């Protein structure tokens, strides 16, 4: 029985992505790493490859349609607010627990298969980042603007692969928006955590 690849048979091409040219900072430069970062999500606790807790996502019973990204020490880095009276699923992310316009970090606008992400100072129509479906419905690629420069990948509901020099706290915050896509018409508190047990503060 013949083994190996037949002579002259073409090797399937591999999709390649150009590296990030400049650091991507949204929440803070302290969340940049000079190497690829892999994070695991379990019950909305985010850990590194050694199992060390890095972030937690919480929701408060007193704060409907808001989720909070905390660091391992419990400090709130970002609060994400879902806008319920919009045609498309839309989230706003603010620094800390603020709701002030000058603390707006980013806005995410969703369609069925994509998410357009606009930084707080972007008042135009061209997004700063775009989330697209990957090789399967359970995977997503996060791209720099509308380009082929990938800054992170989401595999299923529990694995993040983040490129060097990319704000990994920002990517985790964006993950909340991505997972919410399971049921974009469900506006109940904690709907973004459907299928995953959140942490109630």
Can you count the beta strands? 13
What structural class results from the helix and strand content? mainly beta
Quick check: average pLDDT?
81
Biggest β-sheet: count, sense, barrel? 12 strands, antiparallel, barrel
Strand coverage percent: 35-45%
Calculate the terminal CA-CA distance, rounded to whole Å. 62 Å
Question: What's the overall geometry?
Answer: globular
* Uncertain spans: 181-201
How many alpha or pi helices? Answer: 1
Helix content: under 10%
Record the strand order, biggest sheet.
1-2-3-4-5-6-7-8-9-10-11-12
Which radius of gyration do the C-alpha atoms yield? 18 Å
Order of helices and strands: EEEEEEEEEEEEHE
Give the structure's gist in a few sentences:
With 201 residues, the chain is mainly β. Helix content is 6%, strand content 36%.
Keywords:
single chain; 201 residues; mainly beta; twelve-stranded antiparallel barrel; 13 strands; globular
Could you characterize the architecture of this molecule?
It contains 1 helix and 13 strands, in the order E-E-E-E-E-E-E-E-E-E-E-E-H-E. The protein is 6% helix and 36% strand. It has a 12-stranded antiparallel β-barrel with strand order 1-2-3-4-5-6-7-8-9-10-11-12. The longest helix has 12 residues, at 168-179.
């Amino acid at each position: 029985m013949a083994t190996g690849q037949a002579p002259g048979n073409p090797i399937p091409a591999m999709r390649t992505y150009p590296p990030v040219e400049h650091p991507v900072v949204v929440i803070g430069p302290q969340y940049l790493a000079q190497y690829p970062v892999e994070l695991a999500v379990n019950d909305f606790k985010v850990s590194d490859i050694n199992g060390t807790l890095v972030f937690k996502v919480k929701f408060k019973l007193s704060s409907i349609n808001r989720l909070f990204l905390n660091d391992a020490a419990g400090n709130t880095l970002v609060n994400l607010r879902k806008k319920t009276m919009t045609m498309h699923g839309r989230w706003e992310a603010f620094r800390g627990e603020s709701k002030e316009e000058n603390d707006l970090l980013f806005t995410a606008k969703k369609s069925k298969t994509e998410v357009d992400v606009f930084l707080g100072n972007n008042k135009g129509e061209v997004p700063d980042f775009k989330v697209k479906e990957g090789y399967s419905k359970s995977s997503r690629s996060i791209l720099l603007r509308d380009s082929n420069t990938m800054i992170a990948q989401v595999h299923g509901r529990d694995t993040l692969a983040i490129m060097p020099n990319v704000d990994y706290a920002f990517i985790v915050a964006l993950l909340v928006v991505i997972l919410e896509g399971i049921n974009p018409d469900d506006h109940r508190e904690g709907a973004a955590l459907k299928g995953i047990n959140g942490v109630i503060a």
